[in-house]
Amino acid sequence: MPRILATENPAHVEILEEEYRKASVYVLPSLYEPFGISLLEAMAHGLPCIGVREFAMPEIIVEGETGLLVERGDAGSLANAMLEIAASPPMGTEFGIAGRKRLETQFTWAAVARRMADAMAVMT
After folding, report:
1. What is the DSSP pairing of strand 49-52 with strand 26-28?
2. Which pLDDT does position 3 carry in this prediction?
3. Residue 124 reports pLDDT greater than 90
4. Helix (H/G/I), strand (E/B), else coil: 15
């Protein structure tokens, strides 16, 4: 049975952290996902990511650099992507390192604020 974890509970946070430490890849094959913040959480833990080629996921996952993208609802390509990463642990490690770097340079509050300020400066 799935666990319901609350970030307000330190014991639950430790359970989640342990699951990330045990993982070798993060897979989010959503049928609908406007942004995918859990992909960023996985990248923060140095995990390669697999997501769908829709919504904001292609903005988060750089295919072939931080993870892999598959067509939504295509179980075969999802399985192939998981097998590809499982078959090459060094590739998964490279994706994880690149994902962590991408998170730090593109998705921290400071990075987002900097891009917003740059965009606003162009508009004025």
Report:
1. parallel
2. 75
3. no
4. helix
Per DSSP bridges, beta strands 67-70 and 49-52 are: parallel
Q: What is the dihedral of CA 116, 96, 37, 72, to 10 degrees?
A: 110
Task: Region of 117 please: left (phi>0), alpha (psi -120 to 50) or beta.
Answer: alpha
Tokens at residue 37, please?
Answer: 């913040």
Residue 49's nearest CA partner among 32, 30, 34, 31 is: 30
Distance between terminal CA atoms of the chain? 54
Residue 1 has pLDDT above 60, yes or no: no
What is the pTM assigned to this prediction?
A: 0.89
What are the helix (H) ranges across the chain?
Answer: 10-22, 37-44, 57-60, 75-87, 89-106, 109-123
Confidence of residue 11 (pLDDT cuts 50, 70, 90): very high
Contact 57, 28 (CB under 8 A): yes
Query: In the CATH scheme, what is the homologous superfamily, with its name and number, of domain 10-123?
Result: Glycogen Phosphorylase B; (3.40.50.2000)
The pLDDT confidence band at residue 2, using thresholds 50, 70 and 90, is: low
